[in-house]
Design goal:
The protein is built from two helices and four strands. The protein is an alpha+beta fold. The two termini are 18 Å apart.
Length: 93
């Protein structure tokens, strides 16, 4: 079930692709590994309730070579820092 906050307005069936959620507690190598296995060449970093600097995180990931553009959402889930790796939905949905 996708939380209402993650659903796209006006569509009951639109669901983001969320392949994996990983702890975000200062482990850029784990996040980088997850992103590389998904072929990420670039990432968009969003944050809510997380005390990170998106530019510093992007630099620490040291990505390159992949074709996929993924999004990393740094947030807190059940009081714990988490990094959610997902893909942006198409605008025409």
């Amino acid at each position: 079930m996708v939380p209402p906050a993650l659903r796209r307005a006006g569509t009951a069936t639109a669901r983001p692709t969320i392949p994996r959620s990983a702890p975000s507690s200062g482990q850029p190598t784990r996040k980088a590994r997850e992103l590389r296995t998904r072929g990420a060449g670039s990432v968009e970093i969003k944050k809510r309730g997380a005390d990170i600097n998106p530019d510093d995180l992007r630099k620490s990931l040291k990505l390159g070579g992949g074709d996929e553009q993924l999004t990393v959402i740094a947030t807190r889930v059940d009081g714990r820092h988490r990094a959610i790796i997902c893909r942006r939905l198409a605008k025409n949905l």
